[in-house]
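call fold(seq) -> tokens
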Amino acid sequence: MSAEADLIYCYPGSDTLINLLDLRDPEQLKQAERTLSAARLIELYKKPLPGDFDLTHLQRIHHYIFQDIYAWAGELRRIEIAKGLFFCRSAYIVNQAQKLFAKLSAEHCLQRCPESELAGRAAYYLSEINAIHPFRDGNGRAQREFIREMLAKRGIKVDYSRTEPQRMTEASIASFGGDYSLMEALFKQCIVPAPKWRKCKRAATTADITEKSGTGCKP
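ret:
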């Protein structure tokens, strides 16, 4: 994934990310990361992090998810990375992110977005955050949680398990080239229809994920 020799984040002579568990085997690290991050995501489902749905908020979400694994969790990357195409250069991450989140704030963090347009706007912002790719690793989980928490604030449930990881990958690749249609279709599948979601909320025994987070984005 790195577009250059990674002398900052990887063990010397290796592609394995330096981690708090000091795991040098990439498969062991992958499994540990999956387990620990999943546990943190469950915690966020029950109690979202308060914030203004800006870059700082995204960094806090990333830190929360990966705090048990990487010392740099929540920190903006300092190297260039690519997956076929280059993501935003590290020197421009803050500038590009500030522009994007200013636009999101102007849209009231989608709190007033008509439901008929919600999938399209969620697709746009997830895609654009992905193009910036602020972190060395774990961007997908952090940005999906960011969008999930933002929509949960207005009582909309996003269930990513309603689609397949390969579809998310395909949608991300297409949106990187400016085609958001696959990502929008994915969100239409993952957004649980309001009547069904409200019925589930009444029957649920878990914490309400629409708990007020006190963000600066007013409904």
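Strands lie at 82-83, 85-86.
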